[in-house]
Amino acid sequence: MEQIPASIWTLTAGVVVTLISFWVGQNHGLFPEQASEQAPLVDNLFDIMMTIATALFLVVQGAIIYFVVRYRRRKGDEGDGIPVDGNLPLEAFWTAIPAAIVIFLGIYSVDIFLRMGGLNPGDHTSHTMGHKQGVAVVAQAPQGTTSDVPMLLAAKGDIDVGIGASPDVLGQQPDVAVKVTGMQYAWIFNYPNYGITAGELHIPVGKDVQLDLNASDVIHSFWVPQFRLKQDAIPGITTELRFKATKPGTYPVVCAELCGGYHGAMRTRVIAHTPEEFDEWLSQNQVASGPESTDFTPPSLVAAHLDATGINPQLLAQVQNEQAEAMPNDRHHHHSMH
Ligand SMILES: [Cu+2]
């Protein structure tokens, strides 16, 4: 029987590995649905990494299994292995390939970051002012009106961390601006243009939404898996997350930074409405919510908006109790008082 040349086997294995890798890259099913304009960008990058990872896995594991079987010790073979020390062309080859892959992934991920607006946090203030100014610019949107003019939340220079304007809205003001406060263990959403404070984030799909994030105690992280967006909320530093939702629906908001004993319960929802539904929600809640609270210190803020936030008062009391008990100083105080 004629021998099949090794090069044919290598070529066949290469074609099979390539086909499997591309299939896995497109069908891994690891992500939930895509619900923001940024989601497909992130997923394209991830799919490519998944394709490369699958190919590497198959080549490395395949080679291991092949070598284990092909070069196993046969019966009666008591000799030593062949001494191998170095193969320069081979080493250059397996250094160059990963280097090229890593450089490509680096350039591509920077491109994705740029298209998501990662290089433009704080963009709207600098561009709308025409030149860079260090002063706070706060539009005086009258409270209790349905003005569509967004209030500028922070001055140029106040925000330089986060995801800012994507290139298609560069220099424009966002359609909807929301102040987000993370605290142990809740998210509070404040709409300065409308005087609304809520425990769930309501946004219109297809509109340019800007979140200005802050934290009142420790670092939290605002994460919506379906949007493929995650941004730290940091005490004393305002961060930005600017995006467009593309699909109406209700999605989880998860705290993605271990922030204390009840971190796992620090969840709420983002409701992406059609623009009509969103306007309806705005007009309903402007009446219900009343004048905006400027007190952003927990737990008074939480207490002031218990109805709006939908947080169970018993749970809140329980959490605060256990927090107090967990602090040795507080306990000491109680003892000395008795
Ligand atoms: Cu948290």
Kindly give the count of domains: 2
The strands making up the biggest β-sheet line up spatially as 1-9-6-2-3-4
Report the CATH superfamily of the largest domain. Cupredoxins -  blue copper proteins
What is the CATH C level class of the largest domain, in words?
Answer: Mainly Beta
- Along the chain, the helix and strand elements come as HHHHEEEEEEEEEEEHHHHH
Percent of sequence in beta strands: 15-25%
Q: Evaluate the radius of gyration.
A: 28 Å
Task: Tell me which CATH architecture of the largest domain applies here.
Answer: Sandwich
The global form is: elongated
Keywords: Copper, Electron transport, Membrane, Metal-binding, Respiratory chain, Translocase, Transmembrane, Transmembrane helix, Transport
Protein name: Cytochrome c oxidase subunit 2
Catalytic activity: 4 Fe(II)-[cytochrome c] + O2 + 8 H(+)(in) = 4 Fe(III)-[cytochrome c] + 2 H2O + 4 H(+)(out)
Main location: membrane
Provide key terms for this protein.
Immunoglobulin-like, 338 residues, 6-stranded mixed beta sheet, disordered C terminus, 2 domains, binds copper (II) ion, 18% strand, alpha/beta
Folded structure, characterized:
- Subunits I and II form the functional core of the enzyme complex. Electrons originating in cytochrome c are transferred via heme a and Cu(A) to the binuclear center formed by heme a3 and Cu(B).
- With 338 residues, the chain is α/β, with parallel strands linked by helices.
- The protein has 2 domains: 10-69 and 94-116, no CATH class; 159-310 and 318-327, Cupredoxins -  blue copper proteins (Immunoglobulin-like).
- It contains 9 helices and 11 strands.
- The strands form 2 sheets. It has a 6-stranded mixed beta sheet.
- A hairpin with a 4-residue loop joins strand 3 (186-191) and strand 4 (196-198).
- Helix 1 runs antiparallel to helix 2 (39-70).
- The longest helix has 32 residues, at 39-70.
- The protein is elongated and about 90 Å long.
- The N and C termini lie far apart (97 Å).
- Residues 125-152, 292-301 and 327-338 have low confidence and may be disordered.
- Residues 182, 220, 255, 257, 259, 263, 266 line the site of copper (II) ion.
